Amino acid sequence: MGALTLFLVLATPWVIGCGALRLLGVRVLHDRVAYAGWAWLAGSLVTALLLCGWLLLGLPIDSFPSAARVVAAAAVLLLAWTWLRGRRTPPMAPPVARSGRLERLLFLAVVAACLALTVDRAVRANAAEVVLLGDEARIWASKAKAIYVSGGLNERFAALMAQEEIVLHQDYPLLNPLLQVWTFAHYGRVTDVENRWVIQASIAALLLVAAGALRRVARPLYAALFLLLLVTSHQLRVSTGLVEADGLVALGFLAALDLLARFEADGARRWWRLAALALAYLAWSKNEGTALALAVAVAFFILRLGRRLRGGQALRGSELLALLLPAGVVALHLLLNARFGFVNDITASDAAGSFAARALAHAGVHLRAAGAYAWEYAVRRPGETHLMFPLALVLLLLFPRRIGRLLPLFTLACGLALPGFLLVYLGTPHDIEWHLSWSIQRILFQLLPVVLVWVAAATQEIAAAAGCGATARPGSRTSGSCCPRAGA
Q: CA–CA separation, 183 vs 177, rounded Å?
């Protein structure tokens, strides 16, 4: 692929995302680090939705990039217009944490180094092998190729998808395949390497969003250290070289929780609107993403109900309308699966009975196996998750009052997600050892960025209390006399 074509593949969704952020009221000044990651998340989702609509209308796939560039041009005009207006009435910048300049520069240098390392990993992976084997080929790329060679979501596509020797897990969401089709449309044919780039960009976006989330809850030095833990985790290294969807899930999960936490902290509606978009991205990324989006929504409304009972303000009707986007994405996914007859292999009934019957029948054996694999990958192999999961549990048990109040949305969402994943393992129709060996690392990776942010907030809290005799709580406007404010 030529340099210009690759630039258009990556730059067009990002520019569209910048325009979407501006419509939502999000500016660069609101978070200079996370902004580029949010723009990629928003732009890739909008591009995929537009492409899906284009396909449903039966329009030619190869002509879609030209239409998308018109949208990107409109986004550029919007950004230019608002920039000119902003010169006359400059927006108020958020408060800056009290930390040394050298420490802030070190944080930015670590962010830049992590991005450079990610690009290097992607280049090396793409130079080493094509998309030929494993889940990246049999699930994600195969579905993208079926869409492209069929010319859309039509009967020919359904016929190709019905051949299990070609495509596995036909019921998986379309975000990943549609982004690959976006690449195919630029190249004019199916590719076996270049289609990785648009998915690999989500890993870079994940690092930027994680950097912003970490910086919001911890001083720059802490944030830099935890970002290094994320970029050196085993599964992130693996995901950087593959065209799979786990990076999309991790990005959507972290972004949705961080944005909702920002909304809870200052009540700015821009965070709520962008969080709804992140939930749609998460729900459309993978089946696990749909489950995590549900966990985030349930956790948010449980906490909101608690605040409402204590006299807090209820959500406005116009704010609830934003949830139509993630709900619509889920509805679209279910309708397409119903139209083409795609069935989920986990929840479908088989000779052993229904999902519930399998879960009850194999609960003991599967529970022991799941515990053993979780211990193996979360504790015995430090490089997988850097012991973040047991550390989070230990901190919560040792300091329940001090840090139990930190990031309650993160805590409750993970608390709801983990039993959900465990239930899937209890009712799986597959051999439990095989299922765990192929999936447990991915599940832990999808949760890892959120757990890292939680542990960073907890250690910041403990360090502030031990070093200053005061608490620097995430999102607060004050902190101890010698600790920087953690809420910038």
A: 10
Residue 293 Cα distances to 57, 323, 424, angstroms: 28, 11, 16
Residue 420's closest CA among 299, 240, 259, 246?
A: 299
The predicted pLDDT at position 461 comes to 86
CB 389 within 8 A of CB 236: no
Q: Which residues of 120-154 are buried (b: 16+ CB within 10 A; e: fewer)?
A: ebbeebbeeeebeeebbbbbbbbbbbbbbebebbe
Q: What is the pLDDT of residue 98?
A: 56
Q: Is this structure's pTM higher than 0.90?
A: yes
Distant-in-sequence, close-in-space partners of 52: CB < 8 Å, separation ≥ 6: 153, 174, 178, 332
What CA dihedral angle connects 310, 316, 320 and 322, to 10 degrees?
-130
Cite the DSSP H helix spans in 343-431: 355-361, 363-375, 382-385, 388-398, 400-403, 408-427
The residues near 193 (Cβ < 8 Å, ≥ 6 apart) are: 126, 130, 131
Per-residue DSSP letter, 28: G
% of the chain at pLDDT higher than 70: 92
CA distances from 209 to 25, 33, 203, 243, 384 (A): 18, 7, 10, 20, 20
Separation CA 198–CA 158 (nearest Å): 25
CA-nearest of 137, 58, 150, 56 to 339 is 56
Distances (CA, A) of 36 to 1, 31, 47, 99, 384: 24, 9, 16, 23, 27
Query: What's the start-to-end Cα distance of the chain, in Å?
Result: 41
pLDDT at 477 over 60: no
- What pLDDT score does 87 carry? 55
Angle between helices 34-56 and 64-88 (to 10 degrees): 140
Distance between CA atoms of 170 and 22, rounded to whole angstroms?
Answer: 36
Q: What is the 3-state secondary structure (H, E, C) of 46-115?
A: HHHHHHHHHHHCCCCHHHHHHHHHHHHHHHHHHHHHHHHHHHHCCCCCCCCCCCCHHHHHHHHHHHHHHH
Residue 316's pLDDT is what? Answer: 77
Number of H helices, E strands in the chain: 23, 0
Q: How many CA atoms lie within 13 A of 392 on its CB side?
A: 24
Provide, rounded to the nearest whole percent, the portion of the chain with pLDDT above 90.
76
Write the pLDDT tens digit of every residue in 89-135.
Answer: 445 545 445 578 899 999 999 999 999 999 999 999 999 999 988 89
Please check the confidence at residue 484 and state whether its pLDDT lies above 80: no
